[in-house]
C-alpha cells in the first residue's frame, strides 16, 4: 500500500536521530539521574518502530542487517554473564563493583560493572520488542 | 585457588563453545575439542592422586548465595576422586570411540554439546559439597541423559526411552531434594561435610528416617535399582558410546556415589543396612535373571549393568555396618565390603565399558545385535572377540581378570556378614550369601552367552545386514585399552587399592580413619576358602545351565507377560496423561476472558482475603496531601476514558482510549515528580499501542456479545472487586503498618552501589537477581512469540516423526 506520508517521513528522518541520541543519553544517565538500561532499550525500540512505520520492513532489514533474536539473546547473555563474571573475582553471584577513574579529556569519571549488566538489559529489550513486532507484522 | 571449581565449569564452557568450533573447524573433527577437554581434565586430576593417597583433601568455595548457605563448594577426597577419574577417563575413551562410531552425517554438534554438558554435570555431582548444588547437577545429568537417549529422536522408541528415564530419574531427584531439605531442617547446614559432623546426634529426630528413605529413593532411581530399573533397558536406544558412558560407567553410578557419600550420615542404622543391602541383592539377582533371557546384546548388557550395580549397592550396605561398631576390629572386618564395592565399581567400569564398545563394533559392522542372528565372528573380528572374551570372563568372575578379585571379595563379604549378631541377621541373614551365589550363576551364564553366541558357532552371513569385517582401527583403541586395564588390574591390584581405593574407603568412614588402617591387601589366591568354593560352584553350575538351556528356561514362563513393571509404568503414564488432559480441558477454554477472570478472582481472593484477615483495611487517608486541580482534571479524564471504552463502537477507538489511560497515568507521574516512571510509562505506552495495531489485523470483528444477564453481572462484580482491592492496596500502602520500612536499606545507595538514582540501583544492583531473571523471561517470551508465529504446526510436517 502506498500512502503519501511525506511529513511523517521527513520528521522521522530527524526524529530518529534525536530519539537515538536520547536513548544513549538515557542509558548513561541512569546511574545518577532518571534513565537506565530498560528505558534506553525501550527508547531504542521506539526509534526502530518509528522507522518501521514509515518505511517497509525490507528496507529496514537491508539498512540494519541485525538479527534481533540474536540481539536479544546477546543481551540476556550479557546480563547473566555479569553474574557469573563475579565468580572470577571470588565474590557472590551478580556482585557489581564500581570505582572512580581519571580518564584524559573527561576528567574523573565513575565506571561501574553495572553498566555492562544494564547494556544486557537494553539489548534484550530492543531485541525482544523488535522480534515480536517483526514476527507479528510479517505474518500478515 | 579455585581450580577444582573450574574442573566442573570447563566442560560446560566447552559445551557452549562447541557450536563455534563446529562452524569454524573445516577439517578437524568436531569431537576433538571435547576430547582435549576430557584428556586434560583427566591428566589434571591424576596429579591429585599422591596427595589424596596421603590423606589430604581439597576444599574450595565460591560464594554463590551465601545468605542461604548455598555456595559452589567443591570437595575432593578419595571417593570423589575415583568417580572424577572415571568420568574423565572413560569419557576420553568414549569420545575417541564415538568419533569413529558416529557417521559425519549425524548431528555431531548436538552430540558433543550434550556429552560435555553431561560431563560437567557429573563432575559437579561428585565434586560438590553443597547439597543444593549437588541437586542441581544431579538433575542436569538426568537432563543430558534425556537428550542423549533421544539423540535419534526420529525413532519412536528413543523418545519413549528418553521420556521414561527422565520421568523416573527426575522424580527420584525430587524425592532426594525433599530429603536434603529435611536434612537441612535437622542440621541447619547444606554442607555434606558438616552434616556428617552433626548427624550422629540426630538419629532420634522424627525426620531422620524419612530423609534417609528419600535420599535412597533418589539414589535407587538413578542407579536403576529394583523396582526403578525399568528405565535402563529402554535407555539403550541411545547411541552405543552413550550407553557405554552414561548408562554403565558413570551416570548410573551417581546413585552409588550418593549412597557412599551418605553412608557416614545414615550408615550404622539397621534400616539403612537392610534397605541398601536388600534392594542391592535383589537387584543383583533380578538383573542377572532377566539378562539371561534377552536376545538383544545391548539389552542383555543393560540388565547385566542393573545386576552389577545391585551388587555394588549391596556391598555398600554391608560395609555400612562398620559404622555401627565404631572403633573396633569388627569395623575393619566389615569395612572390607566397602573396599570391595569401590574396587568393583572401578572394575565394572573397565570391563563393562569394553563390552559395550565391543558390542557397538559388532552392531556397527554387521548391522544387528540380535544374538539369534549372530555367530561365528571370532575369526573375522579377532580383536573384538578378544576384548569381549576378556570383558565377559571378568564379569563372570574368572581369573586372570579383575572381576575375579572383586567377585571373590564380594563372596567373602557376603559370607562374613552372616556372622553379624545384630539387625536380625541370625534369622534371615543366611539368605545373603545364597542370593549372591545364585545371582552369580546367572551372571556366569549371560557372560558366556555374550561371548559364545556372538563369536562362536556357525557364521550366518545371510542373516546379517552386511558381511562382517573387523572394526576400523580407531574404534578398537578404546576397548583394547579398557581390556588391557582389566588384565593389568588383576596383575597389580594393590597399586589401585593403595592409591585410589583406600583413600576412598577412608572418605566413606571419616570417623574411623584416624584410628585404623582401612586398606585391604588384595591377592588373587587366598587358599581354598568359602569364597573360592563358591566361585567353583558358580562355574560348574553355570556351565551346566549354559549347556542345557531347555532344562530350566521354563522358569520364565511362570511370570505372565502382562504382569511386568513396564505394564504398570505404561498404565500409570497413560492414566495420568488422560486425567490431566481432562482436568486441563475443563478450565482451559481458549477464551481470554475466562483466563482473565481466573487471574482476577485469584487476586481478589488472595489480596482482599489477606486484607480482611490482617485487618489492614482499617487505614486512614487523613494524612494524605491535598488533591490539586491538575490532579482532579487528569483523574477525571482517566475515568471518562475508562468508561468510554465500554461504549466504544470500534476496536480502534478502544485502543486509542486505552492509550489515553496510559498517557494520563504518565502525566500523573510527571506531576508527582517521578520522571523515571513517566518516561517508562510513555515509551511502554507507545510500544504497546504499536503492538496493538500490529496485532489488529488478526483480531476478530468487534461486536456486541449477547450473554445472559447472570454472566454479565458476575463479570461486573469481578471487575468492581478487582478495582476495589487494588485501590485499597494503593491507599493502605501509605500506612505500612504490617511491615517495617525497608527503604532505609536503600538510602545510602551511593556508598553501596555507587549510583545516586536509588530506583535504578535497586533495579540493577540491590535486586539485580530479579532484573536478570526478568531479562531472561523477556527473552523466553520473545522467542516464544517468534516460534509460535514462525514455526506454526504443519510447516515442518510429520516427516521426521515416527520413523
UniProtKB/TrEMBL annotation, chain A:
Residues 7-131 form the Na+/H+ antiporter MnhB subunit-related protein domain. Keywords: Cell membrane, Membrane, Transmembrane, Transmembrane helix. It is found in: Cell membrane. The chain crosses the membrane at residues 12-31, 37-59, 71-94, 114-136. The keyword Transport does not apply. The keyword Transmembrane applies. Its main location: membrane. NCBIfam families: PRK12573.1. Belongs to the CPA3 antiporters (TC 2.A.63) subunit B family. This is Na(+)/H(+) antiporter subunit B. It comes from Oceanobacillus indicireducens. The gene is mrpB.
From TrEMBL, chain B:
The lineage of its organism: Bacteria, Bacillati, Bacillota, Bacilli, Bacillales. Residues 637-701 form the MrpA C-terminal/MbhD domain. Residues 128-420 form the NADH:quinone oxidoreductase/Mrp antiporter transmembrane domain. This is Na(+)/H(+) antiporter subunit A. Keywords: Antiport, Cell membrane, Hydrogen ion transport, Ion transport, Membrane, Sodium, Sodium transport, Transmembrane, Transmembrane helix, Transport. Residues 64-112 form the NADH-Ubiquinone oxidoreductase (complex I) chain 5 N-terminal domain. GO terms for molecular function: antiporter activity. One of its GO terms (cellular component) is plasma membrane. Residues 714-790 form the MrpA C-terminal/MbhE domain. InterPro entries: CPA3_Na-H_Antiporter_A (IPR050616), MrpA/MnhA1/PhaAB (IPR005663), MrpA_C/MbhD (IPR025383), MrpA_C/MbhE (IPR046806), ND/Mrp_TM (IPR001750), Proton_antipo_N (IPR001516). It is found in: Cell membrane; Membrane. Its main location: membrane.
Amino acid at each position: 500500500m502506498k500512502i503519501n506520508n511525506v511529513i511523517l517521513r521527513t520528521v522521522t528522518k530527524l526524529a530518529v536521530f534525536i530519539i537515538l541520541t536520547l536513548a544513549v543519553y538515557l542509558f548513561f544517565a541512569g546511574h545518577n539521574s532518571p534513565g537506565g538500561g530498560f528505558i534506553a532499550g525501550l527508547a531504542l525500540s521506539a526509534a526502530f518502530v518509528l522507522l518501521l512505520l514509515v518505511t517497509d520492513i525490507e528496507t529496514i532489514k537491508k539498512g540494519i542487517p541485525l538479527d534481533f533474536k540474536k540481539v536479544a539473546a546477546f543481551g540476556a547473555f550479557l546480563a547473566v554473564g555479569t553474574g557469573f563474571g563475579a565468580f572470577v573475582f571470588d565474590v557472590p553471584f551478580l556482585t557489581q563493583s564500581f570505582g572512580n577513574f581519571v580518564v584524559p579529556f573527561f576528567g574523573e569519571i565513575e565506571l561501574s560493572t553495572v553498566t555492562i549488566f544494564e547494556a544486557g538489559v537494553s539489548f534484550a529489550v530492543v531485541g525482544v520488542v523488535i522480534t515480536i513486532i517483526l514476527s507479528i507484522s510479517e505474518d500478515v | 585457588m579455585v581450580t577444582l571449581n573450574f574442573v566442573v565449569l570447563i566442560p560446560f564452557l566447552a559445551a557452549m563453545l562447541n557450536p563455534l568450533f563446529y562452524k569454524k573447524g573445516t577439517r578437524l573433527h568436531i569431537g576433538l575439542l571435547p576430547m582435549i577437554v576430557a584428556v586434560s581434565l583427566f591428566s589434571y586430576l591424576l596429579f591429585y592422586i599422591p596427595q589424596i593417597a596421603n590423606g589430604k583433601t581439597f576444599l574450595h568455595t565460591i560464594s554463590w548465595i551465601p545468605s542461604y548457605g548455598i555456595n559452589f563448594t567443591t570437595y575432593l577426597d578419595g571417593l570423589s576422586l575415583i568417580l572424577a577419574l572415571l568420568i574423565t577417563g572413560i569419557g576420553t575413551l568414549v569420545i575417541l570411540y564415538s568419533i569413529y562410531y558416529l557417521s559425519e552425517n549425524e548431528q555431531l554438534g548436538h552430540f558433543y554439546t550434550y556429552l560435555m554438558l553431561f560431563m560437567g554435570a557429573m563432575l559437579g555431582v561428585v565434586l560438590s559439597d553443597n547439597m543444593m548444588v549437588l541437586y542441581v547437577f544431579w538433575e542436569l545429568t538426568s537432563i543430558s541423559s534425556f537428550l542423549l537417549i533421544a539423540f535419534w529422536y526420529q525413532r519412536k522408541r528413543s523418545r519413549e526411552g528418553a521420556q521414561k528415564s527422565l520421568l523416573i530419574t527426575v522424580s527420584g531427584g525430587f524425592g532426594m531434594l525433599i530429603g536434603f531439605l529435611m536434612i537441612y531442617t535437622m542440621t541447619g547446614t547444606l554442607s555434606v561435610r558438616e552434616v556428617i559432623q552433626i548427624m550422629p546426634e540426630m538419629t532420634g529426630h522424627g525426620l531422620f528416617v524419612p530423609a534417609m528413605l528419600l535420599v535412597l529413593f533418589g539414589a535407587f532411581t538413578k542407579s536403576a535399582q529394583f523396582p526403578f530399573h525399568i528405565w535402563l533397558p529402554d535407555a539403550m536406544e541411545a547411541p552405543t558410546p552413550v550407553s557405554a558412558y552414561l548408562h554403565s560407567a558413570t551416570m548410573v553410578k551417581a546413585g552409588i556415589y550418593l549412597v557412599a557419600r551418605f553412608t557416614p550420615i545414615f550408615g550404622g542404622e539397621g534400616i539403612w543396612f537392610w534397605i541398601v543391602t536388600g534392594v542391592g541383592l535383589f537387584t543383583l539377582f533380578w538383573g542377572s535373571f532377566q539378562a539371561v533371557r534377552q536376545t538383544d546384546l545391548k539389552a542383555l548388557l543393560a540388565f547385566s549393568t542393573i545386576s552389577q550395580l545391585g551388587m555394588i549397592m549391596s556391598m555398600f550396605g554391608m560395609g555400612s555396618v562398620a559404622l555401627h561398631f565404631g572403633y573396633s576390629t569388627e569395623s575393619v572386618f566389615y569395612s572390607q565390603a566397602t573396599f570391595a564395592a569401590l574396587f568393583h565399581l572401578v572394575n565394572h567400569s573397565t570391563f563393562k565399558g569394553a563390552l559395550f564398545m565391543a558390542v557397538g563394533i559388532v552392531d556397527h559392522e554387521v548391522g544387528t545385535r540380535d544374538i539369534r542372528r549372530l555367530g561365528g565372528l571370532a575369526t573375522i573380528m579377532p580383536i573384538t572377540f578378544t576384548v569381549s572374551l576378556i570383558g565377559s570372563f571378568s564379569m563372570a568372575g574368572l581369573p586372570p581378570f579383575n572381576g575375579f578379585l572383586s567377585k571373590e571379595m564380594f563372596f567373602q563379604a557376603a559370607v562374613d556378614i552372616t556372622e553379624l549378631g545384630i539387625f536380625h541377621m541370625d534369622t534371615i541373614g543366611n539368605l545373603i550369601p545364597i542370593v549372591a551365589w545364585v545371582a552369580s550363576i546367572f551372571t556366569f551364564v549371560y557372560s558366556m552367552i555374550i561371548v559364545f553366541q556372538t563369536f562362536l558357532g556357525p557364521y550366518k552371513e545371510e542373516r546379517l545386514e552386511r558381511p562382517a569385517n573387523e572394526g576400523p582401527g580407531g574404534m578398537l583403541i578404546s576397548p583394547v585399552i579398557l581390556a588391557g586395564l582389566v588384565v593389568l588390574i588383576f596383575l597389580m591390584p594393590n597399586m589401585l587399592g593403595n592409591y585410589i581405593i583406600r583413600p576412598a574407603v577412608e572418605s566413606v568412614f571419616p570417623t574411623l580413619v584416624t584410628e585404623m588402617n582401612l586398606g585391604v591387601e588384595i591377592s588373587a589366591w587366598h587358599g581354598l576358602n568359602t569364597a573360592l568354593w563358591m566361585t567353583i560352584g558358580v562355574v560348574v553350575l553355570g556351565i551346566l545351565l549354559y549347556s542345557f538351556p531347555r532344562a530350566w528356561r521354563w522358569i520364565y514362563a511362570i511370570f505372565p507377560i502382562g504382569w511386568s513393571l513396564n505394564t504398570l509404568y505404561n498404565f500409570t503414564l497413560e492414566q495420568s496423561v488422560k486425567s490431566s488432559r481432562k482436568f486441563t480441558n475443563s478450565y482451559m477454554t481458549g477464551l481470554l476472558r475466562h483466563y482473565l477472570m481466573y487471574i482476577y478472582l485469584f487476586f481478589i481472593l488472595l489480596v482482599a482475603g489477606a486484607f480482611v484477615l490482617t485487618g489492614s483495611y482499617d487505614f486512614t487517608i487523613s494524612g494524605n496531601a491535598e488533591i490539586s486541580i491538575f490532579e482532579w482534571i487528569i483523574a477525571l479524564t482517566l475515568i471518562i476514558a475508562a468508561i468510554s471504552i465500554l461504549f466504544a463502537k470500534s476496536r480502534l477507538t478502544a485502543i486509542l482510549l486505552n492509550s489515553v489511560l496510559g498517557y494520563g497515568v504518565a502525566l500523573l507521574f510527571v506531576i508527582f515528580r517521578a520522571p523515571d516512571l513517566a518516561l517508562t510509562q510513555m515509551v511502554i505506552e507507545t510500544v504497546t499501542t504499536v503492538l496493538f495495531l500490529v496485532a489488529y489485523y488478526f483480531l476478530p470483528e468487534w461486536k456486541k456479545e449477547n450473554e445472559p444477564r447472570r454472566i454479565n453481572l458476575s463479570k461486573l462484580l469481578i471487575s468492581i472487586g478487582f478495582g476495589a482491592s487494588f485501590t485499597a492496596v494503593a491507599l493502605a500502602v501509605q500506612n505500612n503498618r504490617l511491615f517495617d520500612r525497608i527503604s532505609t536499606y536503600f538510602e545510602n545507595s551511593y556508598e553501596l552501589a555507587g549510583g545516586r538514582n536509588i530506583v535504578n540501583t535497586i533495579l540493577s544492583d540491590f535486586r539485580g537477581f530479579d532484573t536478570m531473571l526478568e531479562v531472561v523471561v523477556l527473552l523466553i517470551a520473545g522467542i516464544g512469540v517468534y516460534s509460535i508465529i514462525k514455526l506454526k504446526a504443519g510447516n515442518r510436517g510429520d516427516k521426521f516423526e515416527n520413523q
